Amino acid sequence: MRGFCCEKETRVEYDVTSVELEEPNISAPPQAVRIVEVLEETDHSFELNADLLERILLDPKVADKKVAVIGVAGPCRKGKSFLLNFFLRYLTWESQADKVMGEIVLENSQWMSPNSPLSGFSWRGGSERDTNGILIWSEPFLMKDKNGEEIAVLLMDTQGAFDSQSTVKDCATIFALSTMISSVQIYNLSQNIQEDDLQHLQLFTEYGRLALEDSAAKPFQSLLFLVRDWSFPYEAEFGFQGGQRVLDRRLKVSEKQHAELQQLRQHIRSCFEDIRCFLMPHPGLTVATNPNFDGKLVDSRTEFQQQLGVLISRLLDSHVLVHKEINGQKMTCRELLEYFKVYMRIFKGQDLPEPKSMLMATAEANNLAAVASARAVYQREMEKVCGGDTRYMSTNELLEQHDRCNSVAIQEFRNARKMGGVEFSLQFLDRLESDLQESYENYLKVNNRKYLADAESLGPLGGAIQMGEALGGNSNVTTRKRRQ
Ligand SMILES: Nc1nc2c(ncn2[C@@H]2O[C@H](COP(=O)(O)OP(=O)(O)OP(=O)(O)O)[C@@H](O)[C@H]2O)c(=O)[nH]1
Ligand SMILES: [Mg+2]
């Protein structure tokens, strides 16, 4: 693994800025650029800044090089952009080292530069979300992979999930896109891996999987659970090893578990080729709470600095760097661009179902269940009086029976305990009414067929009498308009 010497630290200026420009000109310094924007002011649609992405990925320096994409995603306000800036630092140092120092082995820790304020991807303290959409660093870094081939490394930052301005669809789309584009997706979590974290991962990856063509292969590549502020090193030590133990426990499937829990775990395992976990210590109160903290590592706990060094130098180690692959093919930057455009088109289109919050999904499910049992009540009651085995009855009589059974069924629906509130329920009531009307029309047809069959069995005279009755009494053998 390559290291860096102190000389470098004084000579090399970080060529980074925290400004996110939409349209950098050719000579602008490298910077974080927003390639996917969520139009929150209007309809929450997604816009790809294709020109910008083309300029980055079709740059002749990288266009036909294989690519690795490191993406960070997860709940908002948990230090994602902050972390990514250290990746940026590492890569900046390494690319400078290549230029200036050639193959000289340098001290590893110098890229951490304890007294430099942290810049690059926009980050900040406070409770309000910061990152919007998806950003990448405008200059891919060139590294050599284990075979000595040059590979372009892209860093990708994403909007945090579950902030107060994003819909479930926004969160699912951002997370899914990031999972589909990354070769290593970092799932950044705070304190622990909890069941709800796994449920969200399931929801988001399932959404991504829907957007992909069916294929036998696992759809996504490497997933790293990154647990920040891990406070139980006496149970599992910081780093990859302790992380693996926690992960094994969380993803363990046992027969004693409820089927739902087993399924969730199987789903996650089936989505990724490789799943790891890293436990990070707490960085100290200055990092977590001081509004004037500007990102200097010297203000963080030594333990945190050490583990940051371990994590980043391991993930970006050229011997283990994960190439971006799609269907088993290693992607070049040029190819990745095309995939990006296709994925965006899918997410912008109308084909994908709307992902829902857990409450909405549950409320919808139990409203639908209430519709189904009310419909069953209607059928049961109607079958008793005008089912296939019963005799023909006049249309008025049938209508009366329908009105009676309809009321019983509607009452059944109203009495059922349902989640989601009254307003939400109304659309299901509407649906029930239209289902019942449809059923009534079927009963009416069956009844009319009985009438014809009876008429035939009575012969020409009886038939004429019955026809006369029907025409005189109730010739209106038609359907009634649905009442509002
Ligand atoms: N407790 C804790 N705080 C951290 C850690 N790393 C960074 N922070 C702080 O977390 C705050 C938010 O950092 P950001 O990088 O902007 O967080 P983010 O996840 O990108 O936030 P959004 O873009 O809004 O989703 C900053 O005050 C950081 O100093 C960590 O490991 N633990
Ligand atoms: Mg951020």
UniProtKB/TrEMBL annotation:
Alphabetical list of CDD domains matching this protein: GBP
Pfam family of the protein (one): GBP
Topology of the protein relative to the lipid bilayer: Multi-pass membrane protein
GB1/RHD3-type G domain residues: 64-325
Cellular component GO terms, alphabetical: endoplasmic reticulum membrane
Keyword Secreted: no
Entry GO MF terms: GTP binding; GTPase activity
Catalytic activity: GTP + H2O = GDP + phosphate + H(+)
SUPFAM superfamilies: Interferon-induced guanylate-binding protein 1 (GBP1), C-terminal domain, P-loop containing nucleoside triphosphate hydrolases
InterPro entries reported in the protein's UniProt record: G_GB1_RHD3_dom, Guanylate-bd/ATL_C, Guanylate-bd_C_sf, Guanylate-bd_N, P-loop_NTPase
Signal peptide: none
Keywords assigned: Endoplasmic reticulum, GTP-binding, Hydrolase, Magnesium, Membrane, Nucleotide-binding, Transmembrane, Transmembrane helix
Family: Belongs to the TRAFAC class dynamin-like GTPase superfamily. GB1/RHD3 GTPase family.
Protein's name in the database: GB1/RHD3-type G domain-containing protein
